[in-house]
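Now for a specimen:

…
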Amino acid sequence: MLKQILLVAFIFVCAGVSTQAQTAAVKNQILNRIIQFGEITREEVKERGGVSNILNIQSVDLNRDGKPEYIVVCDCSLGGTTFVFRKTTQGVKDLFVAEVRSTVTLSKGYTKGWRNLEYEAGNSPGYQSQPLRFNGSRYKK
């Protein structure tokens, strides 16, 4: 009985470590894409205390396939920039890149099997939010 309990505990610990490693890998892949966009540099990431201090990542299954996509707000050089990413076998693919100081939130309904999103730019006074719909490869306004 004790061996079985220890085995179950070991499996849970290993699963937790594996999940943490996958999460760290996804965070780094997302950060690498954001650096490629020129929103922030590795030096700025280090100055601010690392990936966890600059990225706010919301995992959400946007297409009901059981795998998370990511709505990411980066506390980048010019202010918060929002991105939508999907994990692929090659890393992460950007599905939408917002303007600086903007928000992306979940909306009702689906288009082409993907959850609709709501986009609001923070730089424009009186700006109305716009729906984002999936066009088969990316989210579009």
